[in-house]
Amino acid sequence: MRPVATTRSATGMPTARLAVWWLIASEVVIFGGLLASYIMHRLAHDAWSVQAAYTNTWIGAFNTLVLLTSSLTAVLGHKAADEGDGERAAKMLGFTMLGGVTFLVVKAFEWTIEIQHGFTITSNTFWSFYYSAAGLHALHVLAGVVVMGIVAASARKNEELHRVELIGLYWHFVDIVWIFLFPLLYIAK
Amino acid sequence: MAESAHATHGDHHEQSFFIKYLWSTDHKIIGMQYLFTGMFMALIGGFFAYAFRMQLAFPGLDIPGWGTMTPPNYNALVTNHGTIMIFWVAMPVLIAAFGNFLIPLMIGCDDMVFPRLNRLSYQVFLLSTLVLLASFFVPGGAFGGAWTAYPPLSAQATYNLTPWGAPLWLLAVALEFAAFLMGGINFITTTMNSRAPGMKMHDIPMVVWMIVLASIIFMLSVGPLFAGAIMLFFDQVLGTGFFDPARGGDPVLWQHMFWFFGHPEVYVVLLPAMGIVIDIITVFARKKFFAYKVVLYTTFAAGVASFTVWAHHQFIAGIDPRMAHIFTVTTLMISVPIAVIVFCSIATLYGGSIRFTTPMLWALAFIFEFLLGGVTGIYLGAAGADIYFHDSYFVLAHFHYTFFPIAIIGTFAAVTYWFPKMFGRHMNETLGKIHFWGTVIPFNLIFIPLFILGLAGQHRRIYNFSMYPDLAKPEFQDLRVLATVSLIVMLAFQFVFLFNFFASMIKGRKAEKNPYDANTLEWTTESPPPHGNWKELPSVYRGPYEYSVPGRADDFWPQNEPS
């Protein structure tokens, strides 16, 4: 049974959505700290561009496209949930999960190739940042896919449809983090 | 609590002990879990202080209850004393215990908005506690690189000689942060969305505001350190070079990340204590709180400003002197909003009819002692003076004069004040006052000598002063002995508190609903409040501090009473 507290809304914004925004705020500063450290180091070490030249921009671009598309299906899922069509919402979230899994599989191959070529997390501080930042992001993708599976399972039964929007918000955040990572790690050579 | 436990025992349809007290989603029980865990950790932290102070006063002595103090022991105890007292005592007790207990009761709702997230938050916190304690029993022993964990000492096992202790310490701290992020989201959203009908922004009791603002400041400052913790962990266990200049890293980066969090953290623990003190002062001065809105907006300003002062911890870390000037200015400026809050609390006393109850004594002691801590901070905020004082006992005495009032005096104020509501019984006032004087007087006798020693140039991180002729003079050693003896006296008086606390819980005088004639909503329900807090949730008609309103027969005016 839910407490009365959960059903109140003094701000006018549903409590769950409010909480997701605060969650995102706390995540923004985590990634913010990591990326600010990276940018300051990068500015101080011109030599890192030699290392950065080994990252594969095309794979990064493909993954960017995959993530952006998965955000689109998340929005379509939200729209379906708003219209009360739980089955369609679940289907759209399924596409988003497919995008997330594709992203992770591509990343797994990309990292395998890089590690085989000797670019490991300890070979240079550029690579340390590369694996740490993209790895932390990949963990967020993974967590998003898992939670989305739970949300989609209940949405299929037309239950807890408001959660479709919430997981979508989180997914857009994960997407936006990648929008920062892609140019910083792949394009800036 | 004892009573409800009996009731549970008698009625087999009720929840089992495990479900009721260890797996509960009730905000009051979770608050108690945090309170008791924090008190337990305070005993450990206090014992550590006893052990290393004995070594400083009587170098090489076989310490009763500990044994011989080796240098690695000493470092581990000092490090973990600081870590425990801030992360496992001040935060869980002031923010988590009282935040959980008070927020739903003071804003008039039945629980936190996310009860299961709340339970998870405590469980992660408990896990972090166990990880930290476990770090004492691994090969190499517990981490001894100071609670600030500066690399390269913290990053490489070849330097710190604690290959297991250092990563476990870091893991424990990171888990603790995760627990408080979950708790913080709960506090913030609960207060934003679940207030009683009629409770507007300026009707929220100060202590609730302060806990919420502390949670926001914590959330916005801890992120970079969270990232830093991941980086340091990789340096420790994978061998990356984030903080190793030889490999393109930068050790000062850690200092920036640590203090970008570490300084706001001071306000994270200060604000709840200030809120507790404000609520107690208004009740026992029977006065409306002086300048509610001024203090509220000043606190917003202090919260923003707290993000701009961090590098005053790094004046001798090789930062640009021009940068040091900027941070000197911001640091001196932040004393203005804090002074405003303190002076408004003092102004509340003026013309009041003051009742010197035990919680009131603690609240007044907080203001007095914290002012000393704040004033000595001005010296350290100025780069010129700080270069001399840095890493001396002056710094140590200064921050104990801020943290002790916050974490210990503030906690005792809150525990003695809300005890009737928490456990349905009164604490003994005489024992409470004996404990008060037995804590506050020795506290000053511990740290005033340390101020003097710091001014004389005594460095913070020395294991045995008899090896340094300049510092081994008898007049200095006498002050060290005075500080240590005072500490032992103070610790001994804590048993008075523990006895009073547990004895009162079982057979103290029964507490009525509103023993202090207070206005805030928690006093309108039973003591202790039942599950769900009220039979019928209250509505709010006025602010929390309407005491001694002219023209009214009563000198208080509960928030839920229709006009």
List keywords for this structure.
heterodimer; A: 189 residues; mainly alpha; Four Helix Bundle (Hemerythrin (Met), subunit A); 7 helices; elongated; B: 563 residues; Cytochrome C Oxidase, Chain A; 66% helix; globular
Write the layout of secondary structure elements.
The complex is a heterodimer of chains A (189) and B (563).
Chain A: H1 4-7, H2 15-44, H3 48-52, H4 57-82, H5 86-116, H6 125-156, H7 162-187
Helix pairs in contact in A: 2-7, 4-5, 4-7, 5-6, 6-7
Chain B: H1 2-10, H2 17-22, H3 27-57, H4 71-107, H5 115-134, H6 157-160, H7 165-193, H8 206-237, H9 251-285, H10 292-305, H11 321-349, H12 358-381, H13 383-389, H14 393-423, H15 429-455, H16 474-507
Helix pairs in contact in B: 3-4, 3-5, 3-16, 4-7, 4-8, 4-9, 4-14, 5-7, 7-8, 8-9, 8-10, 9-11, 9-12, 9-14, 10-11, 11-12, 12-14, 12-15, 14-15, 15-16
Walkthrough of the structure:
The complex is a heterodimer of chains A (189) and B (563). Chain A has one domain: Cytochrome c oxidase, subunit III, four-helix bundle (Four Helix Bundle (Hemerythrin (Met), subunit A), Up-down Bundle). Helices cover 81% and strands 0% of the residues of chain A. Chain A is built from 7 helices and no strands. In chain A, α6 runs antiparallel to α7. The longest helix of chain A is centred in the last third of the chain and has 32 residues, at 125-156. The N and C termini of chain A lie far apart (55 Å). The mean pLDDT of chain A is 96. Chain B has a single domain, classed as Cytochrome c oxidase-like, subunit I domain (Cytochrome C Oxidase, Chain A). The longest helix of chain B has 37 residues, at 71-107. Chain B has 16 helices and no strands. Chain B starts with a helix and ends in a 56-residue tail after the last helix. In chain B, α4 crosses α14, α8 packs antiparallel against α9 (251-285) and α11 packs antiparallel against α12. The model of chain B is unreliable at 1-12 (pLDDT under 50). Chain B is mostly helical and 563 residues long. Classes of the chains: A mainly alpha (189), B mainly alpha (563). Chain A binds chain B through residues 3-6, 8-11, 13, 15, 18-19, 22-23, 25-34, 36-37, 40-41, 45, 48, 121-122, 124-126, 128-129, 132, 136, and chain B through 104, 109-115, 181, 184-186, 188-190, 192-195, 199, 219-228, 230-231, 234, 238-242, 247-250, 253, 257, 260, 532, 537.
